[in-house]
Amino acid sequence: MGLRGRGRAGGGTIRSMTDGVIPLLDLRQIGRTPPVPHPLPPPRSGPWLDARGRPLRDLRISVTDRCNFRCSYCMPKDVFDKDYAFLPHRDLLSFEEITRLARVFAQLGVQKLRLTGGEPLLRRHLEALIAQLAALRTPEGLPLDLTLTTNGSLLARKAQALKDAGLQRVTVSLDALDDAIFRRMNDVDFPVADVLHGIETAQAVGLAPIKVNMVVKRGTNDDQIVPMARHFRGTGVVLRFIEYMDVGMSNGWRMDEVLPSAEVLARLREHADLVPLAPSSEGETATRWGYADGSGEIGLISSVTQAFCGDCNRARLSTEGRLYTCLFAGDGHDLRALLRGDAVHDARNDDEIAAALGALWTRRNDRYSELRASLPADADAGPARRVEMHYIGG
Predict the structure, then answer these.
(1) What is the pLDDT of residues 132-159, one digit of tens each?
(2) Which residues, other chains included, contact 250 with Cβ-Cβ below 8 Å and sequence gap of 6+?
(3) Which of 138, 141, 200, 302 could form a disulfide with 261 if both were Cys (CB 3.0 to 4.6 A apart)?
(4) Based on the number of CB atoms within 10 Å of its own CB, is 224 exposed (0-12), middle (13-18) or buried (19 or more)?
């Protein structure tokens, strides 16, 4: 049974890959404006910690909900078809609004900004936003770590402009080296050679170290694990294998299509000597493994079989200003209303926005993946509806 639906409030249904019929509620319409505390709390010298003691360090910013691929695990074509109602431009946060929020988040402890989508390179004049974000500083006066995730389709033509604007690194999504498999997975007949050219161009202009993310689906592209590893070994590119996740409600996720990272590692170790590496940063999602001869490394992101909720330090800002404190959230917090409200129009009132966001973060208690792992395979740990990945990035 196929998926059917439309991206508008209350319209249509999604027929699940089982026998159920789930009403399609446009989660873009769900959001509460965080209240501004009065009186404002005094300035904090330490990090803002959530209810589980996790600091806020990483902000992922979706700059568009549109994408030119139709990967089945993210934007299946039978849901996101020619009639799907994407957000109109007037609803998107402006570059100035994004920069203002990023500046406030930096005051709360954010050290890393990742631009996502959809496909972020579809957002016109993105270089102007990157230049604004590159000028931001932490309270200690340090630049933020500024990165971007892309499907690579436009990377070759835009890499130099992105670097010149101040982007530091890129992560490229690439699910197969075999052209037929890759075209089938992106479902728009896009050739793998063009993505590989984009990676090479980005590396040449200095957007490095480059990471390549491969979502592994059992029976779909798991035969590409070893070829992908061989291709990128010794190139300076870090290849990361991601377990197929149950993000959103449209991808027909099934546990039997998840290939555990332990099996990925076992396959790789049949062809190469790998040794464990220490994490490169606090809250890192990938478990790192290095080739024993020093010719590079791979990463394993095991969000299904080995939940890493315990040190998750990430928040996600949607295209039109909803803040999500978990990738599997059911609703968001309307920061656009906070930005454009009468009480905080003036830039002098960034302290009010910071107080509202800080209060929101301290209440955060999300641990979806941990709960999912503790339940039977056919149980659902999350909200009845979850926001789609293309809307808030991965």
Answers:
(1) 999 999 999 999 999 999 999 999 999 9
(2) 3, 5, 14, 75, 76, 79, 80, 388
(3) 302
(4) buried
Higher pLDDT: 341 or 150? It is: 150
For residue 393, is pLDDT > 60? Answer: yes
pLDDT at 1: 28
d(CA 315, CA 312): 9
CA 309 to mean position of chain CA atoms? 15
pTM of the predicted structure, to 2 decimals = 0.86
pLDDT at 372: 65
Distance CA 274, CA 290 (A): 5
**Number of Cβ atoms within 10 Å of the Cβ of 80:** 25
pLDDT bracket for residue 389 (50, 70, 90): low
CATH match for 30-392 among 1.10.3720.10, 3.40.50.1220, 3.20.20.70, 3.40.50.2000: 3.20.20.70
Task: Count other Cβ atoms within 10 Å, centred on residue 21.
Answer: 12
Q: Within 10 A of 94 (CB to CB), how many other CB atoms are there?
A: 13
Which pLDDT score is estimated for 9? 34
Q: What's the token pair of residue 163?
A: 């670097």
Integer Cα distance of 198 and 100 in angstroms: 31
Query: Contact, 334 vs 31, CB < 8 A?
Result: yes
Q: Where are the domains of the chain?
A: 30-392
- Segment (H or E) for 96: helix 95-107
d(CA 258, CA 246): 10
Residue type for 160, please? Q
Cβ distance 102 to 71 under 8 Å?
no
